[in-house]
Amino acid sequence: MLVRAITAPGLRRWCRGQRGAAAACFPLGRALLGVRGAEAAAFLQGLLTNDVTQLVAEGDGPPALYAHALNVQGRCLYDVILYRLHRSTAEEPHILLECDSSVLASIQQHLKLYKIRRKVTISPCPDLSLWAVIPGDTSSLPKCADQAVLLTPDPRAEVMGWRLIAKKGANLSEIIPGSQVGDVQDYHRHRYKQG
What we know:
alpha+beta, Alpha-Beta Plaits, 6 helices, transferase, YgfZ/GcvT
């Protein structure tokens, strides 16, 4: 994937123009699928292109990974972003898969096909909403928001900003003070400019 090594000046100007907004938040039309259970990482390991065991390993593992779901022949079916929701290795692994909402049922069916005797539960998460966040100033975005389920840098590239998972109906201005909700088309234009 070709990614330009630049920041998002157009969106940052947009944030500054919105009465000093700390960040631009864009609602995404993507869905979340929860995979929970003692064998969640081992189950996903052979079905995705990235090393899923990093999400459950001890130490400072990444909170999010970008991957592709594979079919039996090893061909890419869907692109997904994985998020770790459990806080420590002592907790039961809980991983969220972000995917396009139009393929949620297909991915769920694909995973259930390979679930054979694995101790995992696979279920959609309709009570959660997903947001792309482009900070107006990199120092203005909090590293941890109390009301967010998860706030993490986008695992694909730094110029893509952050990903925010929150409860449906949550007040974004309480999660990221001073943020403004933007048009998702502006976010898509930003993505396309990055290559």
